[in-house]
Every structure is written in structure tokens, then in C-alpha cells.
């Protein structure tokens, strides 16, 4: 086996990793010092401990409710990826929260299931219901929010496949093959 043939699998893996890393979008919000790294469930258990702390949370819209001076958007929270997109398909929910947006938000612009990321300040809790069960919702006074499009959610998640095989040919020759596929 030639030296190149031995290096080929390593080169293919390095190239694939560089491609995947280069595709991920940058985070949309700067994580400032003092930004709390906590989940909505943790805040719901001891809200007084986290009052007025800044968070960057994301999730999917459960419902939108307008009031005279603000809009409450209830979200099912998910962990965020490096780009601060909710990891909906990979993880299970980590609690619910209410994003409090100033003014009126058209409910059709944030339909149920829409992925959203918010940056804001924890502002107490709201006692409510999820079905028949009582639930404590942390409230986030939103400074910035981003509703993710389907295209943005796919960015950085290329459909690559990687395969490696060993074959034996006639005449006592054997070989190694590496393949990368794009779907």
C-alpha cells in the first residue's frame, strides 16, 4: 500500500470536518459576561435566585397572546446549538417559558411550532396551566428575538455521508476506498 493510500482516510475525514465546521452560521447574539447559563426548568424552581439575569433561550412557539401593551409568546425550550438555533430534532424540551415582547405581534407571523431564539432579562414567573397540569413559566422581558426560517435551520447541517471500505481484488491485490456523498 502506498503512503498516499494510507493517508487518504485521514485526509477525507479532515476535509469533511472542515466542510461541516465552515457551514455553521455564527451565533446571532453576543454572550456577554454575566449571561446566565440555566434552563427554564431551573428558573421555575427558584425564580428569586435568577431575577433580572440575562438569558439567551430558544424553542418552538406554543401560542401567542396579545395584550394592550405587549405580547406573550409561550415557547417550549430546547438547548441551543453553536449558532443559537433551538436543537429541536436532536434534543427533548427543557421546560417552557414566556417571552414578553413589547407591542403587538401578529400571531400568524409566529405560528405554533416556529423556532425562535430570544435574548432578554428574567422578569419573574407566571403561574399557568399546561393542559390540566399547573405549571410555572419563567418570564423573559425580550430585548431581541429571531424567528428562524426553514432555510436558516438547515444551514450548517449539510446532508453528507461518509463511507469507508476495504476490497480484495483478483491477483491478490487489495485496496482501501473512501467516499463522501452529498444528498
**Biggest sheet layout:** 5 strands, mixed, barrel
Structural classification: alpha+beta
Number of strands: 7
Taking the alpha carbons of the first and last residues, their distance comes to 31 Å
Helical segment count: 3
What does this structure look like?
The chain has a five-stranded mixed β-barrel. A two-stranded antiparallel ribbon has the order 6-7. Strand 1 and strand 2 (70-78) form a beta hairpin. The chain has three helices and seven strands. 22% of the residues are buried. By secondary structure, the chain is α+β, with helices and mostly antiparallel strands.
Provide a quick synopsis of the model.
The protein is an alpha+beta fold and 183 residues long.
Write the layout of secondary structure elements.
Layout: H1 3-23, H2 40-45, E1 54-66, E2 70-78, E3 96-102, E4 115-130, E5 133-147, H3 150-154, E6 160-168, E7 174-182
Main attributes?
single chain; 183 residues; alpha+beta; 5-stranded mixed barrel
Amino acid at each position: 500500500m502506498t503512503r498516499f493510500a494510507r493517508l487518504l482516510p485521514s485526509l477525507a475525514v479532515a476535509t469533511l470536518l472542515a466542510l461541516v465546521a465552515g457551514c455553521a452560521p455564527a451565533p446571532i447574539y453576543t454572550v456577554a459576561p454575566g449571561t446566565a447559563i440555566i434552563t427554564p426548568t431551573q428558573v421555575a424552581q427558584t425564580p428569586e435566585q435568577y431575577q433580572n439575569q440575562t438569558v439567551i433561550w430558544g424553542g418552538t412557539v406554543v401560542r401567542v397572546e396579545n395584550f394592550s401593551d405587549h405580547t406573550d409568546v409561550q415557547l417550549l425550550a430546547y438547548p441551543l446549538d453553536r449558532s443559537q438555533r433551538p436543537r429541536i430534532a436532536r434534543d427533548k424540551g427543557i421546560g417552557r417559558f414566556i417571552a414578553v415582547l413589547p407591542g403587538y405581534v401578529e400571531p400568524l407571523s409566529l405560528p405554533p411550532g416556529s423556532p425562535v431564539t430570544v435574548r432578554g432579562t428574567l422578569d419573574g414567573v407566571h403561574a399557568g396551566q399546561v393542559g390540566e397540569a399547573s405549571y410555572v413559566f419563567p418570564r423573559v422581558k425580550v430585548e431581541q428575538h429571531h424567528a428562524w426560517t426553514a432555510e436558516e435551520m438547515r444551514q450548517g447541517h449539510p446532508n453528507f455521508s461518509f463511507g469507508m471500505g476495504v476490497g480484495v481484488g483478483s491477483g491478490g491485490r487489495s485496496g482501501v476506498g473512501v467516499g463522501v456523498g452529498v444528498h
